[in-house]
Amino acid sequence: MDIPRRLKISAIGLFDTELKVLQVAQAMLEHEEINSELIENNHEESAIVVLDYDSESGKQVFATMRESQVKLVFSSAQPINIKNTITLPKPIRVHTLKEILTQICRQLYDYIDKYEHNQTQASSSAQSGAAGKTQNIFLHLFDAKNNATILKLTHSSGANIYVNGQDKTLYVAGDSNILDAFIAAAAADINAQVLTADAFQQQVRGLSPLALDGELWRSGISCSQGQLLPGHQADVPVKLRSWPNFSRQGFKPEFFKVAAQMAKRAESLEALSRLTQVQLDVIIDFYNAAFALGLIESHQPQAAQPAQTRELSSQRKSLLGKLAQRLRMA
Amino acid sequence: MNLHSDKIIFTGPVGAGKTSAIGAVSDVPPVSTDVNFSTGQECQIKDVTTVAMDYSYIQLDDGAKVHLFGTPGQQRFDFMWHILVEGGLGLVLLVNIDHPSPIAELNRYLDAFQDFIEKTGVVIGITRTGVNDQATLEDFQNCLLQRGQVYPIFEVDGRSSEDIKVLLNALLAVITS
């Protein structure tokens, strides 16, 4: 039997009683064939963090934690309603804690297995598939970033751009019009060739690097043409993690409404189209580009919640509408 | 002077570019205004105090005005902030990236205006980039992530009408969403 990956569990700010309960519950995980390690007061590398929100140190650490870390919070107060956070009222029982830790660890094992499987597939397809795929510039750039590959892209006119997915740079052999040509090109007019690091360095000598993310965004909003990224679905709730830097990266006027709604709560792209009255094609353009920049997070389907809209008087709505007209971008 | 309710407030530390930003979109050049407050006014200060703020407006097609107020940047005038924002439409927060502690300033202003922001909305403009940057845009975005807040945040030139319009368009989208 394979020994499963060792999962680190951190304890932060726990009082003696709760710490002992956690130690016993963690030791019992071995009976569930879960390989875990308990470490105190170091949460940086842990997948699961158990903290006491009633303690100052617990509160402080909670505020700095990554969203992806699973947080088990012991609290005397109201539950904390944040993604990947489970609030347990005190007093904590060994059996309850052990059951919850078991479920979390099993879900983490599933997630790790899927992630490693995808990485293996992506890595092998990056080497053998990247050179043969017929796709537009956006998808080539997206693959290069995702798979950390190095590519030479050649336009049917003979123009070349070089993409380094490892350090996220892009080099153009010629003027910036070449990038416009690639963005406007049909997929069949672009050929991709995987390069070694040495070959790449030789070919970009004397050229200035551009940020890959900038061109990913530009090509994403231009080339998507209503086609979602492979494997993505329009009926899965998604949420914006951060706004794109519109002032420097470019935008379509509808993007403001889409981003504002997507920042508020997780919605599917289809629901966003209904809420914002923006065509789904335009929302997909935004979504693809934002996802390529790491600005989107997926959510599990959730029960419908009432939309939280601000109460605006009709007078204010009218005023804001007129102001929007006045500020309309050219 | 009446503190109108159809107003957008520009705030941020000294040197962030509030006056320039207001001037970039307003119909008349902004003025720095000295306002005398007495105990009979709606604020809570007890003494007669002179403060300075920026003021201008955008005139709409039907003659209505959206007033633009810039808050005093000096910390000793921060009591004015809550007076200025009362009844306002939303907040434009400008932070200059060459400030010695730009992230701390971002946190300070977001904390100070938290109640107003929750009722209306905020957009953040990072100004003076590319000269003596003490942080990156990613640092600001990470700060918001840690705060659990997803606010529009853009690099802008406070003198650019196009850039300030991007800020205001985002603010309108947030307010009406």
Walkthrough of the structure:
The complex is a heterodimer of chains A (330) and B (177). Chain A has twelve helices and twelve strands. By secondary structure, chain A is an alpha/beta fold. In chain A, the strands form three sheets. A five-stranded parallel β-sheet of chain A has the order 2-1-3-4-5, with helices on both faces. A five-stranded antiparallel β-sheet of chain A has the order 9-6-7-8-10, sandwiched between helices. Chain A starts with 6 loop residues before the first strand and ends with a helix. Chain B is an alpha/beta fold and 177 residues long. Chain B has helices at 18-25, 79-85, 102-112, 114-119, 137-147, 161-176; strands spanning 7-11, 31-37, 49-59, 65-70, 90-96, 122-127, 153-155. Chain B has a seven-stranded mixed β-sheet, sandwiched between helices. In chain B, helix 1 crosses helix 6 (161-176). Mean pLDDT of chain B is 85; it is low at 37-50. Classes of the chains: A alpha/beta (330), B alpha/beta (177).
Summarize the structure in short.
The complex is a heterodimer of chains A (330) and B (177). Chain A is α/β, with parallel strands linked by helices and 330 residues long. Helices cover 44% and strands 17% of the residues of chain A.
